[in-house]
């Protein structure tokens, strides 16, 4: 951008808005010009960005109450915005639009299901929308629209006149894990490794009290790098306790530990890279952000993104060394715990892996047939109970959703709020 162009365009925008009042100005991705001044380094374009931001502030201050022009802006990074933008008289009213909960997803599905020609078995659209809402935790409105579109395309490819439940299941899989890669043929050794890796995830989660309900395990390659995946159905959770965090780390480690047990530490593969990134992030956040470590103490240093924006870490070098040590200690303890669990259930891992090699995709029903029900019946959540009580009953509705009381406000989800859970095996 040439010098002065940004400021000139801002002036022209507001002048045009005043001529066409009443009107609305919406600035999308305002963090592109609205980052805190002085951040981002001195790389030439920074001065022009700050000049554009200053002009925007001037124009907003020049508005009176009789202008009949409303200024709105959207961003995914409110934490990096300049404080001057948030002062009274500017963007002082903040509306957080998070991903929809299960009730919101049901409403969105009802909208996007209307144009579809559904099969006779799906005559009750409300029941279908509720079931799909439960099967898609963490989905945005665009994701839900994509699921309905993909379901219709899948039905068309199968030369079907109507969209059925199997089409929706395939569509959800495609949106979550990517397109099935039929051209990617694994060698027998690779397929065996992937099967034991995914079996480790599945068995580990099956015998951990705070693990999310398992829906499906697959060793069919999907997407860019996923050679297999395990799909879970986490509830819309807003808080995570220390035991829940610990079980989640262990479940994510299950694939790598299974490789170590069955093939030896000298034969581990690169497939656990994504899992290792996840557990490192979770352990770091537990120690540095959530105060879940007794050595570091009840402090929060903010996320890594904030440190990147400022080009400096929000803690001293000594504290950084302590964090590294405690993160490594937390992961080491989880690794030992996972190893003990899978060693105890070694035969179960072999059963699941062999069935995976035979069928390529196994469901929760297959897991129950192989291992029995999860040994935590008294503490199972509503989704877990519904999955157990409605085996093979495709027409049953998921557990009823609690509607918020009139005027109530849902709590904002914590940074570790759960989304659709996929443990995948990647090269």
UniProtKB/TrEMBL annotation:
Pfam families xrefs: AAA (PF00004), AAA_lid_3 (PF17862), Peptidase_M41 (PF01434)
Gene Ontology cellular-component annotations: m-AAA complex
Any one GO BP annotation for this protein: mitochondrial protein processing
Keyword Cell membrane: no
Domain AAA ATPase AAA+ lid: 130-169
Keywords (A to Z) from UniProt: ATP-binding, Hydrolase, Membrane, Metal-binding, Metalloprotease, Nucleotide-binding, Protease, Transmembrane, Transmembrane helix, Zinc
Renumbered residue ranges of the record's region Disordered: 382-427
Superkingdom: Eukaryota
Segment forming the signal sequence: none
InterPro entries: AAA_lid_3, ATP-dep_Zn_Metalloprotease, ATPase_AAA_core, ATPase_AAA_CS, P-loop_NTPase, Peptidase_M41, Peptidase_M41-like
Subcellular location as annotated: Membrane; Mitochondrion
Protein name as annotated: AAA+ ATPase domain-containing protein
Species in which this protein is naturally found: Serpula lacrymans var. lacrymans (strain S7.3)
Classification lineage: Eukaryota, Fungi, Dikarya, Basidiomycota, Agaricomycotina
């Amino acid at each position: 951008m040439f010098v002065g162009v940004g400021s000139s365009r801002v002036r022209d925008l507001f002048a045009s808005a005043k001529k066409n009042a009443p009107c609305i100005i919406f600035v999308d991705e305002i963090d592109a010009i609205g980052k805190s001044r002085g951040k981002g380094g001195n790389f030439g374009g920074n001065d022009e960005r700050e000049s554009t931001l200053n002009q925007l502030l001037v124009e907003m201050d020049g508005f009176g109450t009789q202008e009949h022009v409303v200024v709105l802006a959207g961003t995914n990074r409110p934490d990096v915005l300049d404080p001057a933008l948030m002062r009274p008289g500017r963007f002082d009213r903040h509306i957080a639009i998070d991903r929809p909960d299960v009730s919101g997803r049901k409403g969105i599905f009802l909208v996007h299901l209307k144009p579809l020609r559904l099969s006779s078995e799906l005559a009750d659209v409300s029941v279908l929308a509720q079931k799909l809402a439960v099967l898609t935790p963490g989905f945005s409105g665009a994701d839900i629209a994509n699921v309905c579109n993909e379901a219709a395309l899948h039905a068309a490819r199968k030369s079907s006149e109507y969209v059925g439940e199997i089409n929706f299941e395939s569509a959800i899989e495609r949106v979550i894990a990517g397109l099935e890669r039929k051209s990617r043929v694994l060698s027998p050794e690779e397929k065996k490794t992937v099967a034991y890796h995914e079996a480790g995830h599945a068995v580990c989660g099956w015998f951990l009290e705070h693990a999310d309900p398992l829906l499906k395990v697959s060793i069919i390659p999907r997407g860019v790098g996923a050679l297999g995946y395990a799909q879970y159905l986490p509830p819309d959770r807003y808080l995570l306790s220390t035991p829940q965090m610990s079980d989640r780390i262990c479940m994510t480690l299950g694939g790598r530990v299974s490789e170590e047990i069955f093939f030896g530490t000298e034969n581990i593969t690169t497939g656990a890279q994504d899992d290792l990134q996840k557990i490192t992030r979770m352990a770091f956040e537990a120690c540095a952000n959530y105060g879940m470590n007794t050595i570091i103490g009840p402090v929060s240093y903010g996320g890594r993104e904030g440190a990147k924006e400022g080009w400096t870490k929000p803690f001293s070098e000594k504290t950084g060394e302590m964090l590294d040590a405690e993160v490594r200690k937390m992961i080491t303890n989880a690794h030992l715990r996972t190893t003990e669990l899978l060693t105890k259930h070694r035969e179960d891992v072999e059963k699941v892996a062999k069935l995976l090699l035979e069928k390529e995709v196994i469901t929760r029903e297959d897991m129950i047939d192989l291992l029995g029900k999860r040994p935590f019946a008294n503490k199972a959540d509503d989704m877990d109970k519904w999955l157990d009580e409605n085996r093979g009953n495709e027409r049953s509705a998921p557990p009823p959703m609690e509607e918020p009381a009139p005027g109530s406000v849902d709590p904002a989800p914590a940074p570790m709020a759960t989304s659709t859970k996929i443990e995948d095996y990647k090269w």
